[in-house]
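Our preliminary data section would be incomplete without showing what the modeling component actually yields. Below, a chain of 169 amino acids is followed by its predicted structure, encoded as tokens that our downstream tools consume directly.
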Amino acid sequence: MNLEYKHLLPADFDANSRVWIYQSNRLFTLTEAIRLEEQLELFVRQWKAHGDPVKGFATLFFGQFIILMADETSVHVSGCSTDSSVRFIKEIERLFGVNLFDRQLLAFLKNDKIQVVPMNQVDYALENELLTADTLYFNNTVLTKKELEENWIIPVRSSWLSRKLPLAR
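Predicted structure:
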């Protein structure tokens, strides 16, 4: 799987642009992905904060991660504008029959595929070496464009999950 994505991010957005990552519980089909990209583009064109257009970006990465980004150098995103993005994501859930808010599902790259593992099964997967310190983890807690570029796809050993590694006990 080609994990190159940084070149797809908008170059004209500030490094501190806010980022929200919504991980789907499953891959979107190709047909769904095409429809979703249209919905994302439409949302960004209409996204406003206090009546002013938000400099926004939205895309689907790896068929499973919706990335929303707002460059707040001119218009600050808060309150109603954040609420509108959450309502939009909930509508995406409804339209496509996916779950985008389950933070108990963690995503890893295993055997060149994205594997979603429930948090309550991570210890077992680590103890039985189904996941290792070198397994790539999708760190969906990143908050800025810079963090997205540098700390989104990282080895388990570089994430908060490192404390769960068998050797760390």
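The chain has two domains: 14-96, 105-164. The chain has a mean pLDDT of 95. Preliminary results of this kind motivate Aim 1 of the renewal.
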